[in-house]
Amino acid sequence: MGKIEPEPVYIDEPTLTPGDAKCHAREIGAGLHILHASPKNPHLGDAKYLDEAEYRYRFLQDRIDPKQSSQQISFLLNDAAKAIEFIRDNAPHLASGQVNIHGDLHPQNLFWTHDGLKMIDWESTVWDNPYLDLGRLSTSLALDDDADMQLLEGYFGRIATQEEERQFLLSKKLNYAHHALIGFKIVLCILEQEPQPLDFISGAPSWSACLDSFSRASERMPLQFFYDYARCALEMCLKPERIICEAETTTSELRFFR
């Protein structure tokens, strides 16, 4: 097969905001379904979600000497261990099935235009589980429950079943765990270059507040922000959930393996 030459596309629109995402959640879900329903891209690699998580955790382990580590480094590694344990225990419980996924859906890679949803930055695209895209989209935009339901309705073309909603919530938690590992890795890298104290006592801000602070930042964020970001993501990952499925009018507790 010959080399595919990329064609430049210019998008004269701002990137997607959480407000736009909530207003257009159903249409965004439908747009994502079109991507996932497309024929397999022959240039895509196989699924690598779990490999990426293991790589980030090994990065932390390899850079830390338990005998010489400070208390805050020990706390850091302990929290990272909780995140990777959640991923190892729960990733195998995602429903089977693989499609073309974008792999890195966050606001800076998304645009809402007069033609609908546009996506850029395809370097992370792989042949993998579709729920990973749905979960990443929801967590990176801090969608609320109503927007989540609209996202799923747009994606499936109907109200999601209870099992589909379970899979979606599981994918969100896996994405939170992945965010936690990314945050802890950044914290360790900063500490190696510039040792400084961390506040382990104060409560972490909300997830939406973390994303809002990051989107508004005009300069490098401080160390404490990345630790709070990682800790908040871990809390969201381990938080007990209850789901309500409108299609079946039942309520049940969503349990995960720990």
Note down, in words, how this protein is organized:
This protein has one domain (18-254): Aminoglycoside phosphotransferase (APH), C-terminal lobe (Aminoglycoside 3'-phosphotransferase, Chain: A, domain 2). Helices cover 52% and strands 9% of the residues. The protein is globular and about 50 Å long. A two-stranded antiparallel ribbon has the order 1-4. Strands 2-3 form a two-stranded antiparallel sheet. A hairpin with a 4-residue loop joins strand 5 and strand 6. It has 258 residues and is mainly alpha-helical. The N and C termini lie far apart (46 Å). The chain has helices at 18-23, 25-37, 49-63, 71-90, 130-140, 145-156, 162-193, 207-216, 223-238; strands at 99-101, 110-113, 116-119, 126-128, 241-245, 250-254. It has nine helices and six strands, in the order ααααββββαααααββ.
Q: How would you summarize what this structure contains?
A:
This protein has 258 residues and is mainly α. Helices cover 52% and strands 9% of the residues. The chain has a two-stranded antiparallel sheet. A two-stranded antiparallel sheet has the order 2-3.
What is the rounded distance between the termini?
A: 46 Å
- SS content category: mainly alpha
E-strand count: 6
Count of the separate structural domains: 1
Shape: globular
Strands of the largest sheet, in order across it?
A: 1-4
Please tell me the overall pLDDT: 84
**How can the largest sheet be summarized?**
2 strands, antiparallel
Q: How much helix is in the residues? A: 40-55%
In the CATH hierarchy, the third-tier topology is known as Aminoglycoside 3'-phosphotransferase, Chain: A, domain 2
